[in-house]
Amino acid sequence: MERPDTLLFTLTGRDRPGVSSKVFSTLAAFGVDVLDLEQIVLRGRLILGVLTSVPADLPAAQGAMATAAAELGMNIEIEHGTGDTQRERSGRCHVTVIGVPLTAGAMAGVTRRIRDAGANIDRIERMARYPVTAFELALSGADVDRLRAELAVEATASGVDVAVQPASLLRHGSRLIVMDVDSTLIQGEVIEMIAAHAGCEAEVAEVTERAMRGEIDFEASLRERVALLKGVPASAIDEVYDRIQLNPGARTLVRTLRRLGYRFAIVSGGFSQITDRLARDLGIHYARANELEIVDGVLTGGIVGPVVDRAGKATALREIAAEIGIPEAATVAIGDGANDLDMLSAAGLGIAYNAKPLVRSQAGTAINVPYLDTILYLLGIKREEIEAADAAEGYVTPAPLV
Known about the structure:
Blueprint: E1 5-14, H1 19-28, E2 34-42, E3 45-53, H2 58-72, E4 75-82, E5 93-99, H3 104-116, E6 120-128, E7 133-140, H4 144-158, E8 161-166, E9 176-179, H5 190-195, H6 201-212, H7 218-227, H8 235-243, H9 250-259, E10 263-271, H10 272-282, E11 286-295, E12 298-304, H11 310-324, E13 331-335, H12 341-346, E14 349-353, H13 357-362, E15 365-367, H14 375-378, H15 383-392
Parallel strand pairs: 9-10, 9-13, 10-11, 13-14, 14-15
Antiparallel strand pairs: 1-3, 1-4, 2-3, 5-7, 5-8, 6-7, 11-12
Helix pairs in contact: 1-2, 3-4, 6-7
């Protein structure tokens, strides 16, 4: 098929109202077709590119566009060529880069790895400017697995977070978010807070840390820790709940994604006496956790029913996804401990959030900034969009988001 002649008009200069209107009004007089269009504005400086068919009276069109640019106080370049803007259809993916701050050196490292992997950057868009700086890069021609491995190394070296996701329609549809609770949705470990009432917090904390690092079996460690809680009054659970602090950005994450029709689940190796209340208070649709045995208002040191362990978390993700008719590829799992690894692996997007080294090394994506709502940027949602939606509903969004 013969490639048609085309014209590329590139205007640069100070942004002002009416630039696009003037450009297209001028082009309209020559009956051209618009084939491609892109515009960016950086600190008041505009770059506008318009690709069109070639008009019958080419000199007149070029002269008219030069005059229009002069009247707008802008520079113009006109390039005669052939064909449309052809973008690579294979190896398309999204790369999200997050930093606090995001330095030029870090971006140099990321873009160098992209180049070395043979991928091309088709578009860059800013997702947030505070409390983190985040950009999304749309790539083509990438070997996604190779690129993810290369950028994971660069992220560690440059001290930034980098997520690589294949381009897919699933990214634009309703999804299921499955989240761990202790040290992910909330700060700290509930079992340690309850253990403080039994005078064994340090002992429980030591076992918890070993379990989260994957050094000991989770179920065995849980039963060992819960046994130490024998005799603690059930009223201590209410006191612990009142002291729980959500991680920064948790409410914003849930509120924003609920607006978009996402479904939420919390799946925890902790306790249903806490997680069920969290789900009600935050508007989370599903909650799975272990149940502490309570007899006559006192903890017995036992657990009712089977333990929600590492495998149980992944099973819960699959069961909830099946129940609501969402494919596993459209699930997002978030966690920090070794008992989250199966769940992170089962999800379409598994995110290690401020996780232990073992978990960071095995998860496909890691977030190491202390803001849970940065996950929104991985889903293609901009901070400005979040704030606009909050303002429309009367929420005041502080910085950082909470």
